[in-house]
Each structure stands twice: as C-alpha cells, then as structure tokens.
Amino acid sequence: MNAPAELLIDTAAGSARVTTPAPREIWWELAAQDGGSHATQTPAWLDCLCATGSYRDSSRLYAFEDGSRMVLPLVSRARRPQRLDAVESWPVGWGIGGPVTPGGVGLRKARVLFADLADRPALRVGVRFRPGDAETWEKAVPAEFRLEPHMTQVLSLDGGFGTVWDQRFRTRARRDVRRAERVSLNVQVDRTGRLVPVFHQLYEQSIERWAGQQHEPLALARWRRRREFPGQRLAAVAARFGEACAIWVAWHGGEPAAAIVVLRQGGQAKFWRGAMNRELAHPVRANFLLHQLAIEEACEAGCRCYDMGESTPDSSLAHFKAGFGAVACSSPRYFRERLPVSRAEHGLRTAVKRVIRFQDV
C-alpha cells in the first residue's frame, strides 16, 4: 500500500484537507457511521479489486473545516502513466462506489469533491453513485462531467419480513416460493468460501446459456465473462468479507441447481452474483426460494434494504426482481475524459454486436 500523502485543496466551493490513500481505520469508522454505506464502498471491496486486477488504491479522505469527513473509494490502474490513467469508483463490473458520507453530504461539499476530481491529471475520472444520493450530485456536477444513467433495483425491508412477504412480494413470487418449498430442495449457506467451486460450476453453465440467448459465440462469451468476473474473484471476496459474504446453493437430486452470493454491510444487503443450471432450477423455482431465504435473513439481521443490482430495463431479469417488490432507483455514473475514449469503446462494442447479431436479454 502506498504511504498516505496529505494535501490542502482550495476550490471555488470551499477547501478541504485530503489524505490519499484514505487511512483504513478512518474509512471503516465512517462506513460504520453511514447507515447507507454498501459492501461495495468498503476497504475490503477495494482490496478484492486490487487482488484480482491490475489496480492500486487511490482512495481519498476529505476533512472539511467544520470537522466533518468523507471517504471516496477510488482505484487507478497500476503501472500506467497518470496522463493515461483511469481513476474510478468503480471500474465497469464492480458496481456502486461513491463517497461514504456519515450524516449525508451537502451541495457545497459535493462541489468540492467534483472540483477535486476534475483537477486529477488522469485521462478518465468516473464515479458511480449509490441510490438515494442522486439528486445532490446532479445539482453539484460541473459541465465537464458527463452523465451515464444507471438504475439498480432495491427492495425496502422496512416493517420486517412479514410486511415484505405480504405487501411487497407479488402473488406470483409467493406462489413460486411455495412451489419450491414443496420440492425436495436441499439449501445450504456457506460463509467460509467452501462452496466457491460449486458456484463457479454453475456459472460456467450459465455462460453457455447466456451465449445462446444472446446469439454470442461461446468462445467470445467465455472470454468476456471471465474477464469481467475472473475465477479468483469470488474466492477473494469470500476470504475478505468472511461472515458478511453468504453463498446460498440449492441442490436438487444431489446436483447443484442454483446459487446466489449476498454481501452485507451495516443496514444494506446486496445480491451480488447468481448462477444456475436452468434445466434443474427453473422447474422447481430454486432461485425464488434462495432469494426468499436471503431476504428473510437480511430482515432478521436488521437490514433496511436488499439491493438486487442492475439489469436491462424490461428484461426477464428485471421482471424477476420486480416480483420481489424491488423498485428501480437511479444510481448515476458521472465521468470526465480528456479524450473521447468511452465513445470509441462504445462504438467498437456496438459494431461487434452488430456483426454477431448480439441480442440483449
């Protein structure tokens, strides 16, 4: 880890003392005080990213004149010159980042943070903000930052599991949970990493299914999915999060049918990854039972939200999540580039999709 450096920044919106990388003990302290902090906004998540990719810790602690503090999780590319660097919270595929802000963040402090990011020498700077904070950041964002819209589906756990089951689960979801309960499914939950190989077995089967659905060559699908989710990544997350990382697996007839990974931080539970053998899982509605059990456990643990992540609007996955009562919430990403790299990358991806007749599902 780099030795922390301290500097004073003075912007049109105000000043702050910045320490980078952010001291871990202070970061954990602020995350514990911030009831809205996600597992993906913790030092453990950054460590997993750095352990499974070519990244380095560039997190920033802001100390303001009124005594308040906030941490912005950030990584940059290892072994890359600053002018060609990408400083992000987080890179694509790593989910929601954004500041950890006990007590919330006012407009002035939001502008200080953006001014500091705009001043970074990197080729690209980007931050994906969590749901609930979007309005403040929208008002504070300077003109040189572009909006990349994202939505994440979130289930409120207010009122406890009884209320969630009766008032937020849709009729079909309750019916499918009951159907799964009548089948001889064996459900295990692992908090040690023991079931990581089982998850990856199902994930490889899922890649084959997704490739067929999307009209994507299997070799390309495997390369793309494994680049986005390397084999060692789940093991790294399970090792660093410990009890806060639960791998739920449903077995049918002695074979793994479906699995989900749920992370927890404070009052937030997050469905992070899922995989299944559709031929085994779908007829017995295994995924409905796994999510019901994970949601019930999150309620018992005192969580206020169950974040089900992002999915393509109006897709079958989006409808599946809505069946549990998950509501789409804005989770915008703002980024600034000195050269139009993202536009070129998007154009290349679009061209490849057109050639292979890729279909989003």
Could you describe the 3D structure shown?
The protein has 361 residues and is of the alpha+beta class. It has two domains: 5-149 and 335-356, Aminopeptidase, CATH 3.40.630; 154-330, 3-Layer(aba) Sandwich (Aminopeptidase). It is 40% helix and 26% strand. The protein has 13 helices and 17 strands. The strands form four sheets. Strands 11-12-13-14-15-10-16 form a seven-stranded mixed sheet. Strands 1-2-4-5 form a four-stranded antiparallel sheet. A four-stranded mixed sheet has the order 7-8-17-9, with no helix packed on it. Strand 4 (60-64) and strand 5 (69-72) form a beta hairpin. Helix 2 packs antiparallel against helix 9 (233-241) and helix 3 packs across helix 4 (134-140).
CATH superfamily of the largest domain: Gcn5-related N-acetyltransferase (GNAT)
The name CATH uses for the topology of the largest domain is Aminopeptidase
CATH C-level name of the largest domain? Alpha Beta
Alpha carbon gyration radius? 21 Å
Query: Can you name the CATH architecture of the largest domain?
Result: 3-Layer(aba) Sandwich
Amino-to-carboxy terminus distance: 41 Å
Percent strand equals 25-35%
Structural class: alpha+beta
Name its key features.
single chain, 361 residues, alpha+beta, Aminopeptidase, 2 domains, 7-stranded mixed beta sheet, globular
